[in-house]
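Supplementary Data S3. Sequence and structure tokens for construct A.
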Amino acid sequence: MMNSELRISLVGMPSTGKTTFLAAFWNLIQEPTVEACVRLRCLPRAAVYLHEIHQAWLHGQEVGHTSRDSGELILLDIDLGGREVVLEVPDLSGESFEDMFVHRRVTQEVDVILTAADGLLLFLHPHELRPRITLVDAIRMGIQPEVPGDQDELLALDLKKLPAEVQAVDLLQTITSRRLWARAELSSPRIGVIVSAWDLVEAEGLPPARWLAARMPLLNQYLAASLPTESVRIYGLSARGGSADASELATFDPATRAFLVDSAGVRTGDISTPLQWIATGA
């Protein structure tokens, strides 16, 4: 079994950093470092698209969505330190995952990928945090909670505006239930939680695991209660390499620009670390 092909899927709502990670990871494949033992096993069909987003990344530009992002499957057949891995990106735009949350539907192609995955990288973005005010906080601030009298007001809920941690928990629950329904014998996949744009929150001084517990307690509690401790790791990722403008980022060394911070707060330039952990447990 150790020689069998492993499948890892990138999942996450729109604008959570999957495309930028893919561009930075493609750079790592083109110019592997000593720490990152990653290489291509074959040229992907999406090579032209990957070249396009890589060029944008090299020039420090925001790696935005293109028509290619809308629902098309991207596969990378790679070798990670001698382990054969298929990195699957079923929907870079995140629209399929948003549909799973908002409309409770999923395409057959995405469903097959998620139910067969050996591991998941779940992407989150700190921009999607919502202010957390309890009733006690509101009373202390002199804010009187309003209870709507019209039932129609209760039904006018925009699910897309719910906190990112609520959406992430629901997404994981949906994937878990689909996996159990499709193949009850499947074990829980290893899940790497990726907090994108880590450079924006690094100044808070919290390592990723503690940051998630403080800023997304619902998701943190769900992970702790639903999955074995050894099956989850939390990472902070700056795939763009910082919040500087494009002209300044373009002057940085591409090999060291993107960086990753592990659960304990240790920083590395090897952004393949979460994939290696899923593949090998190390």
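Construct B, processed identically:
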Amino acid sequence: MNPPGVGDPWASDRSTWIVDLDGVVWLAGEPIPGSARAVELLRSSGVRVVFATNNAAPTVAELLARLDKAGIDADRADLLTSAQAAASMLEPGTTAFPCAQGGVVEALTERGVTVVDRAPADAVVVGWTTQFDFALLADTATLVRQGARFIGTNEDATHPTPERLLPGSGAILAAVATAAQATPEVAGKPHAPMVELIRRRTDRVDMTVGDRPSTDGELARALGAPFALVRTGVTRDGREPVVVQPDEDAPDLFTLASRLLGS
């Protein structure tokens, strides 16, 4: 018997898999061995692959370039980001202060939101940034205290790289929340704004693949789809809590695709 929402077998001309990027396809932009072959196998079996990432830092062009470097052909319609989810929460014509990098700025601009670098601002959007420092923390928290809507792209505590786990967007978001004494609205996986983006982009979801049970697993639950955990990202060292038990557990994306598609 197939898991709920999955075709018979695991692929058909209507199947869609939602696949994470960081920790599944690459680590800090470096392709994970077999990821391109996995996507090729899925597509050749009739599966549509939609990449959904909580990493709000890269622009769409940067993500497409990384996919190309990994040997994966993709276009804008194949990508969904937490930056886009955050931007969807704001109305065109409003203003926003980004405590974030280019991906958030791009998404806000495409939404018709004016990006500002000082008060006043209708909202602040906090995402992953390597430029975070005390001054940026103070400016962001002050705007929240002044009444700006407080939006976070995601709550991921860590960001996987080949060498180690780095602080993630959730760490930055927690700092702002503490300084501002405020609770953020969160846009990315597994929250409603990202769920709605996925539902607008796809007719059905047959599998959600990721390395982080607390986001990818919960996203699968929200979409009513099975969850496949791959062990190439934050779960590599066994310390990431498996808060959602996966329907499938595989060492990497290629092994997962090969197993489920019988190849």
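Residues 88-186 form a domain with the Rossmann fold fold (CATH 3.40.50.1000). Residues 78 and 144 are 34 Å apart (CA to CA).
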